[in-house]
Every structure is written in C-alpha cells, then in structure tokens.
Amino acid sequence: MPRDHEGLADASLAIHAGTGAARSFRPGSPVVEPIVQSVNFALTSDVVDDLVTTGGRNSYSYTRTANPTTESAARVVAALEGAERALVVASGMAAITGAIMALLPPGGRLVAADEIYRDTAHLLDQHVERLGFGVSRLPLAQLAGSAELGPADVVYIETLSNPMLRLADVPAIAAAAHRAGARLVIDDTFTSPVNLKPLALGADLIVASATKYLNGHSDVVAGVVAGRAGLIESVRDVVSLTGACADPLASFLLLRGLRTLPIRMMRHNASALWLAGELSRRADLELVAYPLLASHPDHELATRLLAGGSGMVTIRVPGGDEAAHRIQDRLRLIRPATSLGGVESLVCIPAETSHLTVSEAERARLGILPGTLRLSIGLEDPGDLLRDLDQALSGAAAAAGQPDVAAR
Description:
This protein is of the alpha/beta class. The protein has two domains: 8-258, 3-Layer(aba) Sandwich (Aspartate Aminotransferase, domain 2), CATH 3.40.640; 261-399, Aspartate Aminotransferase, domain 1 (Alpha-Beta Complex). It has helices at 3-18, 45-54, 68-81, 92-103, 118-128, 146-149, 170-179, 192-195, 229-242, 248-258, 261-279, 299-305, 320-330, 360-365, 382-399, and strands at residues 85-89, 109-113, 134-138, 154-158, 183-187, 205-209, 223-227, 287-289, 312-316, 335-336, 346-348, 372-376. The strands form two sheets. It has a seven-stranded mixed sheet with strand order 1-7-6-5-4-2-3, with helices on both faces. The chain has a five-stranded mixed sheet with strand order 8-9-12-11-10. Strand 5, helix 8 (192-195) and strand 6 form a beta-alpha-beta unit. The longest helix has 19 residues, at 261-279. The chain is globular. The mean pLDDT is 91.
C-alpha cells in the first residue's frame, strides 16, 4: 500500500477510535455526536465528590472546565496524534500560551527557533520575557546541538516554517532538548498529524491551530494541545484559569472537520506536490519552495520524516512585491486572504501579512525576499489552479512589458 494510503488508513482508524463510532450504540442513538451547548451541568453527589478530589477532571460541572462536545473532539485529536490525552481550546495562540506557561518553572528559560509565527514571537519577546522568563532565539539548524541550547526548560519549534517551509529535524532537536533538560513543544499546524506525528519522534507536547487543516473549512477558530496525560492536565489548569476554553459549537464543527481530515490531507498533499513540480519548470519564477521537491534544502529530511508534503507552496517572482501584487490581483480562482488549510486555495504576500511587522533585513535573513507569495492549495481541481496561476503570471509579465518566458 502506498505510504500516503497507509497514513490515511491509520488516521481513519484513529478518528473511528476517538469518536462515538467506536462505542456501543443504544437503539435510536445518534450516529453523529450531538452538540452539548450548555454552560453548566447538574451537581450530583458524584460530581461534587469529583470536584473535591480532582477539581472536576472526571465529570462535567461547568463548560469553562470541561464540556462533552469539546472532550469528544479532544479524544479524536489525541488518537490522531498518538497522544495519551489532548485539549481543544479557544485558538492556536491559546494552545501555545497554555503549553508554554504550563511548562515554564519560575525564572525558567525557553529556547525557540527563529523561524516561528509572528504572533508566537511577539508573545515570547514582549510578554513571556517581561514576566521574568529567559527567552532565546536560535536558527532552526542550530537547535539540533545541545551545546547550542545551554540550560533550558522548554524548546519551541514549528515542523514547517512559515513561509519558506524549512523542515525541523524533529528527532535530532528532541534529543538535544532532552539532553539539555528541556521539554520540546512543537507547533505542527502546517503538517497535521496525517503527515507527521511529532510525539512519536520525541516531542513532549504538540500544539496546533485547529483553525487550519484540522477543521479545514475556514469557519472555526480553535486550537489543540496533545501529549502525556500529566502534561495535559497542567495545560488544562492554565486554560481553565485564563478562560481560554473552546466554545461547544466550535468543538462540534471541529469534530465535523476532523472526520474528513485524512482524505482532505491526501488531496492537499497530492495537488500541492503536482503544482509545485509544474511551477518549478517555469523560467519566470526565482524560487518554488515545497519540502518534497528535490530542489528544497530539506528534501532528504522530508522524504524520511513526512508522509506528505502538506498543501503549502511558496514562490518568488522577479520584480519584488510590486510584481507579486500584479500576480495576486490577477488570480481568479485562488483568493487573496490570510490563514491556510481550508478547502479553498488562498494566496498572500508574507511581507504584508504574516511578517508585516518584521524588518526587511530580518525577512531577508529568513529567506523571505521581495516578490515572495505563499500559496495554500485547497481542494479544487489542480489543473484549474495551474491555469489560474499561468494566466496570472503571464498577464502580470505582459503588463510589466516583459516577454512571456514561462517554459524552461
């Protein structure tokens, strides 16, 4: 069976195990678990006893602490990630904040990769550090050496960097983090558990924006955390006390999206790989970045770690951001918008979205040069997407008075 299909089968079984489909049904019981849109629950003597002994970990009393619909979605996430337990929370940033604050001891130190989401960097540099924690940033390639880390309590990375799609050597970084006495937290939003399971490679906690691939329909804001039960309970305490709980309706919609995650990721993977290959043959592009292209600097690592390359493709056009704008404005099927991982294909210029507040010099150091466009490849026909890109690239070149030199 092809590798993608093996991952698809594993993910499908995990979803089955995590939902009510795996539990015995009573006659007339719903196939789809119902949404429990209730703030509070009856305080029976058993619930009160649980509140006294465990803080309510094994019962439902108040949705900020726990909710049946949210717990159903969390069970599916845990099964997909191969985790003992998982949490569904209000957003990806709530997941990141909860994980970091739960793991950092008083006066602790966190080491993060340079190539991380802008808002995560802002959280670390402007807030975590202000609270008295030490924060250091290192290039991704240096994090695999324990000598580079120094004493640390938490190491934080992303599986694929935004937007240049550099792949973290998760096993090597996990080993280095553990030698330094640190726990490894990984944001695997870009890969999803269908393509990579960081916990199996040594990570201690995974966090992700469920807004993206996990939900997959651009209509839910949510986040997830997954890992060992003891660590998850520490994160749960932070989430409850900060009020970062997920709304039951968002959890219900996330659960709906999770049911189609394996088959959606298979299509994202296949379409993005094919499009990246076609685009790499164009002479009017300076760069096409996709982890499973032979030209990608992490290609060998990607073939070892990833079951699929995910749906993100980054390109760079000559003429800088002005030329990028001409192309973005001419796209008809691919829509300009932030975010990613939905059924629809999107495009953005990182210098004006994800890296808007990053200096030009810092963007250049990270490889985000003028003319860079990030594509999130959706579920449309890949031939239609290629035709849309072809007409936009050719039309922009004609408008700028350049010859059409698409074919290499």
